[in-house]
């Protein structure tokens, strides 16, 4: 844990050295919520029936979807981006020369971007609440378990992307494909109930479908975590199966790269 925190501290110091960028980033979040509020208000009557099982307000529905999608994007893209950058700049070689285990290094790399996304998401949720979005704040802490399962179900795709970079020096279209399918079929902008039936079958293979449904029912409708147990069980299954598969693939890619002598060669 100490070594993970050390990597987080390095990332924090690097990010806070660009103070103007931080201010602009937070300002952009608050500004982006305003047009979303008006657009969602115009579509409220059209969407009310289809989203009734998850939210009474389309504005809050979309805000939660976008917040979770930010976490998904971070989980999918962070490791491939940092591994690729580390190979190019030589920092990966320096990290691998330490006594830290590879799993610790990867955890340290992924932790700060996820924490930073959490801070930005909290600002967005607070801004939406000020504009009238109904948020059951007492359910925010319990809903963190759901959010953690969502992140853990998508981190394996980031691990697979990192494995591809180690072996082939490119992650290919994996991240873009996962993010597109999640946004289109995972219920970010609209309920999965409104998409064609054959696409609904596809959405059952997307972890975000279950995660968003559970999270919205808790944080927007105030339902207890026990009411979303079925969705959480499926999410946990995704975490276990995808996590195991990604670890095995990454280990194979790491061994291949070491044998080929290309582990730190761009």
What do these coordinates show?
By secondary structure, this protein is mostly helical. The chain has one domain (2-260). It is built from 10 helices and no strands. It has helices at residues 2-16, 19-47, 58-89, 91-96, 102-130, 140-168, 174-185, 197-203, 207-219, 229-260. Helix 3 packs across helix 9 (207-219). The longest helix is centred in the N-terminal third of the chain and has 32 residues, at 58-89.
Q: What does this entry show, briefly?
A:
It contains 10 helices and no strands. By secondary structure, the protein is mainly alpha-helical.
Tally of helical segments: 10
Helix/strand order: HHHHHHHHHH
The rounded distance between the terminal residues' Cα atoms is 30 Å
| Rg, nearest Å | 20 Å
Q: What's the β-strand tally?
A: 0
Structural class: mainly alpha
| Structural domain tally | 1
Percentage of residues assigned to helices: over 70%
Estimate the mean pLDDT confidence.
87
Beta-strand percentage range: under 5%
The backbone outline, from C-alpha atoms, is globular
Q: What ranges have pLDDT less than 50 throughout 5 or more consecutive residues?
A: none
How would a crystallographer describe the biggest sheet? none
